[in-house]
Design brief:
The chain is mainly alpha-helical. The protein has helices spanning 5-47, 50-81, 85-118, 129-150, 153-183, 188-220; strands spanning 222-225, 228-231. Helix 1 (5-47) runs antiparallel to helix 2 and helix 2 (50-81) packs antiparallel against helix 3.
Length: 232
């Protein structure tokens, strides 16, 4: 039987494409875990559920391990497959996004730790805007990953445009808490805890925009900087 070099080449390409698809599915799966961590952490903070906060902290190790596994897979694929430029861009983008997801997981863990630091003390004020920040930040993360799957720059730009809403909420939380702490100096520690939590959520939104920027780069080969696109 005559060996068909073209057939072997096509078979190898098909196997590589399959590996890329599995890699993306694992990346999106990691994103889903991180999104759930955000929700759990803020719900635990709001409900003063210390056991739930401890669980978020424990599960961060799973997120870290999954990110490490993704990184190892990408490195192996680069070393073994020697991908062409477009495939290499996909792999490098995967590395960057997995790093952003791990950092978002760290912020969720940080909120859970803040909850434990508060112990059984009630929050300084009823939590309204902080859960809203969590909702908007989680939605940005989810949309950025949807943009990745659909290779949609339109969705990616929607994420970028949403960041101002989270920043506005953060500014509002900051002003309100600062005023409460001025009026009641004994509440400074409790107010500071909530400021830390709000800051973590603001950073989560920033990380979601970083993922959206990576999607734009993956699709177009262009980098987003301060609303402007330029070619590398």
């Amino acid at each position: 039987m005559v060996n068909n070099p073209l057939g072997n080449k096509n078979s190898a390409r098909g196997g590589f494409d399959h590996d890329l698809q599995v890699l993306e599915e694992n990346l999106v799966g990691l994103g889903s875990m991180v999104e759930k961590a955000i929700v759990k952490a803020v719900d635990a903070l709001k409900d003063r559920d210390l056991e739930a906060s401890k669980l978020v902290i424990e599960e961060d190790n799973i997120i870290d391990n999954k990110r490490n596994s993704l990184e190892e897979t990408v490195v192996d694929m680069i070393a073994i497959q020697q991908p062409v430029a477009s495939d290499l861009r996909t792999l490098i983008t995967t590395l960057h996004i997995s790093m952003e997801l791990e950092r978002i997981g760290d912020y969720a863990e940080g909120i859970a730790k803040i909850s434990l630091m508060m112990n059984d003390e009630p929050p300084l004020k009823k939590l309204v805007d902080i859960p809203r920040m969590a909702e908007k930040s989680s939605a940005m993360l989810r949309k950025s990953l949807d943009a990745l799957v659909k290779r949609s720059t339109d969705m990616a730009y929607e994420v970028l445009n949403s960041d101002d809403d989270v920043d506005a909420l953060y500014d509002q939380v900051y002003r309100e808490l600062l005023m409460l702490m001025i009026q009641e100096p004994k509440a400074i520690q409790r107010g500071t805890y909530l400021l830390w939590a709000a800051h973590d959520l603001e950073r989560i939104a920033d990380r979601a925009t970083n993922i959206a920027e990576q999607v734009v780069y993956l699709v177009t080969g262009s980098t987003v900087e301060k609303g402007k696109i330029y070619k590398d």
